[in-house]
Design a protein that fits this description.
Length: about 450
């Protein structure tokens, strides 16, 4: 569920579109996955929209304009960075609901995931996808018109378990606000990844709360699962995690922390069986659940569990106690924080869910009450050849972590934002319950495997 960022090298586009011929599937895609869809504001300047076509995608990742053939960035051979793959993965409980719950629930969950990815993509467009300009030893960091990206929706893990996730493949080209094309400032992409992750999960919580009345169990990390999806069922469909744990125990005598799992991840990474489809896998998933005594009909109980008793007063978007705790932990590790660091913390503490607009607004309120910034972020955004020197301009400001902690404690009104959207209540949830009930009654006595819902494009 943690957002991973992988560098895609030149020629690596085949993993995402290798089974596409003239935009149509040849046999089945990887485990029946869908073709990609163009995403990001930067695609508008290239006239790209709709389905990602393999030849065009290859040109863009190779740094060429798909129409004119013009070179958009400097080439550095076969090791050249072609793109950045940001993988937005839904919690296991959400994947199970999307792929094994009744159609009404599955469709709403899929739409919620798509909305959350779009929210995170918009954040990356305006905050993370920038470019660098060098002139006589002076480096200037400037914004761009947005990401040129392909979004690839997948529903299975490499172990062929339910795993709803989207690969947002951001091409290493961007048009600066000065009108010139060049490579993306990769340091900013990596720096903003935690904030993008937090925004995705916060928006997903909001979407499922409004669409299903779902409740959430959110851990301090900001990751969580939908209330009502059995922990044993989640574990049953987590074969990849189990394999990694067994590898760690066998080699190191214990399960290592997430910060040391990259080697384990690659050592245990299987090839994905591309001969399977989601439909046939769903039948096996249902049989596996029955073999272990799980009734997938119980998944319908998630509807309305987050409503509580009565509407009550509007709920704040952020849990202030969690925010104080998270900032206190950061104070032990970091002396300064950037705006995107604070965005990540605010998003992680938005336990009932929130939009990026609310999260960024709260983060801005916090910085405004924290006093003036103390130093620019040279480490993450500056060019290595001049890092730490005054020649780098346009670097992100940073605030003292202690001043941020004090500001939140002294000015709690900076957190006074309520969760947006229509309130969740019986008027919204009861019709959904009725449709689910009718669907289950109609399917009684038959083992039915509905096709994966269309998430829309």
């Amino acid at each position: 569920m943690v957002l991973t960022v992988h560098v895609v090298r030149r020629g690596g586009h085949g993993y995402y579109v290798g089974d596409l011929v003239a935009g149509r599937a040849r046999g089945t895609l990887v485990a029946g996955e869908e073709p990609g869809v163009w995403s990001g504001q930067g695609t508008l300047g290239m006239g790209l929209a709709g389905t990602v076509e393999a030849p065009v995608f290859g040109d863009v990742l190779d740094g060429r304009h798909p129409d004119s053939g013009a070179t958009l960035r400097r080439q550095a051979g076969h090791r050249s960075v072609a793109a950045y793959d940001l993988t937005f993965a839904a919690p296991k409980s959400v994947s199970i609901l999307h792929l094994l719950a009744p159609r009404e629930i599955a469709t709403e969950v899929g739409a919620g995931h798509r909305a959350a990815v779009e929210e995170a993509t918009s954040y990356l467009d305006r905050a993370a996808v920038g470019v660098r300009r060098s002139h006589r030893g002076q480096v200037t960091l400037i914004p761009s018109t947005g990401a040129v990206a392909g979004g690839f929706l997948h529903r299975t893990s490499r172990a062929l378990d339910p795993h709803l996730h989207t690969h947002l493949v951001v091409a290493n080209v961007a048009e600066g606000v000065d009108g010139a094309w060049s490579a993306v400032d990769g340091r900013r992409v990596f720096a903003h990844a935690p904030a993008a992750q937090g925004i995705y999960h916060a928006r997903l919580r909001l979407e499922l709360r409004e669409r299903l009345g779902a409740g959430w169990q959110v851990r301090p990390s900001g990751l969580g699962d939908v209330v009502g999806v059995d922990a044993g069922l989640r574990h049953l469909y987590s074969q990849r995690s189990t394999t990694m744990d067994e590898y760690d125990v066998g080699r190191f005598g214990r399960v290592r922390t997430s910060g040391h799992r990259r080697g384990t991840f690659h050592a245990t990474r299987p090839d994905k069986d591309v001969t399977r489809t989601v439909d046939t896998l769903a039948s096996e998933w249902r049989s596996r659940a029955a073999d272990f005594g799980f009734d997938l009909g119980d998944l319908t109980r998630v509807v309305g569990l987050g409503m509580g008793r009565g509407a009550g007063p509007p709920r704040p978007a952020v849990d202030p106690d969690r925010l104080q705790e998270q900032l206190g932990r950061l104070a032990n590790r970091r002396s300064t924080l950037s705006h995107h660091d604070i965005v990540a913390v605010v998003a992680a503490t938005a336990v009932t869910g929130a939009t990026a607009r609310t999260i960024e607004s709260i983060a801005t309120s916090i910085t405004e009450t924290s006093g003036p910034p103390v130093v620019a972020d040279r480490t993450l955004h500056g060019d290595r050849s001049v890092a730490g020197r005054s020649e780098v301009r346009g670097m992100a400001p940073r605030w003292s972590t202690d001043s941020v902690v004090r500001a939140v404690a002294r000015h709690p009104e900076s957190l006074d934002r309520v969760v947006e959207g229509a309130p969740v209540g019986a008027m919204a949830v009861q019709p959904l319950r009725g449709r689910i009930g009718q669907e289950r009654e109609g399917a009684m006595g038959a083992q039915r495997t509905p096709p994966a819902p269309d998430l829309g494009r």
